[in-house]
Amino acid sequence: MPPETTQHARRRGQLTIAIRYARDENERDHARRELRTFVLGEHIKQVVDQAPPLTDEQRARLAALLRPTAGKR
Q1: pTM across the whole model
Q2: FRET label pair with 41: which of 26, 51, 62, 66, CA 20 to 30 Å apart?
Q3: pLDDT of 25
């Protein structure tokens, strides 16, 4: 696992604070989503950096995975 970045630590800290002090569940959920989104983005970046160049078709298929579908968030 790569070392934790300052941005990762900041988001993890925000989640910790939200879990401990937030009265609103939406605030805790938002902090969880922010951390998960950041971690996922870092993982995607790492994989893409190690992969060979993608074709336009491959890029489109991968982008489609990130687009919301009907009935889902």
Answers
A1: 0.72
A2: 26
A3: 94
Nearest CA to 9 among 38, 30, 33?
Answer: 38
Close Cβ partners of 7 (under 8 Å, ≥ 6 residues apart): 38
Q: Which two tokens stand for residue 14?
A: 């925000």
Dist. CA 44–CA 59, nearest whole Å: 13
- Identify the helix (H) or strand (E) that includes residue 56: helix 56-66
36 φ, ψ (degrees, to nearest 5): -60, -40
The verdict on residue 71 lying in a domain is no
| CA distances in angstroms from 53 to 13, 17, 41, 42, 57, listed in the order given | 35, 40, 18, 18, 12
Domain hosting 51: range is 6-66
